């Protein structure tokens, strides 16, 4: 091994070590949302509007804004867009997006099924309407989540999931959010060819990310 190659290896090793330290000790300090609190607010909204999905979401979004202030975007029903990822299709609207977290309403009116993806983030999926079924390799019976229940998917874990029929959820992800973007975009190029939806996604995502930067949220 040449001296130049050895030096590059040392530099790369130091960089990886610093990245691991950042991931372990600093990144969690950037989180502002509590999965437990979001679940509590979701349960309250479900009890108040058990038969009206729009009213439920409006009430929940306002409750979250009261709890977390301007870090949460106002819910605007004109800003929903499709999401195709892991062979599943649904629609979503952003409530928060930053380097370390996103908070969205996600779901489908007709049902979907797919792969969760493998991510460097923890995911908290609180069911609001309908139900979600998940299974891991070798799991012979599904785990079923109903309204008010929260499905926790740790980073680097993968599952198959389905949302049979109408199902809507509040989803929080905490971790390296930009590394999730390829999973959400790749089917545009190799499957749907819906570049209009890709543009809409990038437009709303960049605006939300910029707002977080302005507020000092990374």
From TrEMBL:
Enzyme class, spelled out: isomerase
Pfam families: ERG2_Sigma1R (PF04622)
GO biological process, one term: ergosterol biosynthetic process
Subcellular compartments: Endoplasmic reticulum membrane
Listed pathway(s): Steroid metabolism; ergosterol biosynthesis
Membrane-spanning residues: 6-27
Domain of life (superkingdom): Eukaryota
Keywords: Endoplasmic reticulum, Membrane, Transmembrane, Transmembrane helix
A GO cellular-component term linked to this record: endoplasmic reticulum membrane
Protein EC: 5.-.-.-
Family, per entry: Belongs to the ERG2 family.
UniProt-recorded name of the protein: C-8 sterol isomerase
Organism of origin: Pneumocystis jirovecii (strain RU7)
């Amino acid at each position: 091994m040449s001296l130049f190659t050895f030096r590059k290896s040392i530099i790369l090793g130091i960089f990886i070590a610093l990245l691991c330290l950042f991931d372990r000790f600093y990144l969690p300090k950037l989180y502002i949302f509590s999965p437990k609190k979001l679940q509590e607010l979701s349960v309250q909204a479900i009890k108040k509007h058990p038969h009206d999905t729009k009213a439920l979401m409006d009430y929940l979004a306002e409750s979250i804004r009261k709890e977390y202030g301007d870090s949460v975007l106002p819910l605007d029903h004109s800003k929903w867009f499709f999401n195709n990822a892991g062979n599943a299709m649904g629609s979503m609207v952003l409530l928060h997006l930053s380097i370390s977290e996103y908070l969205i309403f996600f779901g489908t009116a007709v049902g979907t099924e797919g792969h969760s993806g493998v991510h460097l983030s923890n995911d908290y999926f609180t069911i609001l309407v309908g139900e979600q079924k998940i299974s891991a390799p070798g799991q012979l019976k599904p785990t079923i989540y109903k309204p008010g229940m929260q499905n926790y998917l740790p980073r680097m874990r993968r599952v198959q999931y389905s949302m049979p029929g109408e199902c809507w959820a509040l989803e929080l992800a905490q971790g390296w959010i930009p590394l999730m973007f390829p999973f959400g975009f790749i089917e545009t190029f190799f499957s749907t060819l819906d570049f209009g939806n890709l543009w809409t996604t990038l437009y709303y995502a960049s605006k939300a990310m910029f707002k977080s930067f302005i507020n000092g949220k990374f």
